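hi! just following up on the protien thing from before. the input was this:
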Amino acid sequence: MRKNLSFIAAALAVMFLTWAAAFFYQNYRGASVLITPPVRDVSILVSSSSSPFLLPAGFTVSVFARGLPGARVIARDTVGNLWVSQPSESTVSLLEVRDGKVVNQRPVFKNLQKPHGLAFDPDQPSTLYIAEENKISRVALDSNSPMEKIADLPAGGNHTTRTIGFGPDGRLYVAIGSSCNVCSEKDDRRAKIFSMKPDGTDMKEYARGLRNTVFFTWDEKGRMWGTDMGRDYLGDDLPPDEINILSEDKNYGWPICYGKNIHDTNFDKNVYIRAPCEEPFETPAFIDLPAHSAPLGLAFIPVGWPREYAGNLLVAYHGSWNRSVPTGYKIARITFDAAGNYIGAEDFMTGWLVEKGVIGRPVDLLVNQGVLYISDDRAGVIYKVEYKGDKSI
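and the predicted 3d structure came back as:
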């Protein structure tokens, strides 16, 4: 009897180890590039003759600021200084800028709970809003007033970033990711975008079914665009990550639908009278992106760049962690036709993924006066991309 039990236990152990090895190989072997620190100091690489970064002709890249571990969201104030959130450091730092260069750099707000989103009130431009994992606060930078909490947010779970931004309507928007990879949420505030008045009142749901829309922006027509990350563990190529045009009261499908309204039957086993993923009940992604690219910051092409770039969108692919072959780790250019229809995506800036590992991971994109700023939370730097060729737009 004891021998039989030992045999069964050994067999179960072998089965478990075999399953664990197969699971790891399928889902995590591509994460090896992230286990070790960056293989080289990106500040040295960029300034050398052997810079790893590739950009189209006429563009240059430099390191604008360094020494910013975990740099995520970038916000610009009215005097041209940059503010950078560092969730891993519990800090928001100030970069004082003079004549296009950082002359002073220091943490200003410390001991915060995973601060991520930053935004300035267009009607009170000296007021900075900071979104921590569990709340949104504001502070007047031109006074000694303390930080004022204006809204509570749900904390915990897999996705802790809270991104904020003021829309063309003057309301403050906040994105709250799901608590899980894929699940039915118990907290009705998760996997949604909310809007509120600048003082935090009248907080109401704007859009739902968004697993992890970490970044969003608005175009010249006032439309809200957001990137969204698909779930894990469906293999290397499913589901697609997404770019959505976000509209009020729309449902973008998660957790039961992904991409172009594809039913996630791996998760959702329910039987429906109607097809569970179809318009107008669920809204399909506007653009499907390669799975596990992890799209984050997005920005429309600035004035002063080549004419063929007009109206195009840049998106930062933070890079995969659960794909057998790493993907992402670059800035993509999303192109449209004259009517605004999606044409395709192409590489704009590459070089973070190198033969022996990863030297950085792009996060946020900030456009100002023809210059593109890119945060990198792995290398702890801010890059500056400029166009030096003939300016035609």
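The radius of gyration is 22 Å.
The helical segments are 2-27, 32-35, 42-47.
cheers
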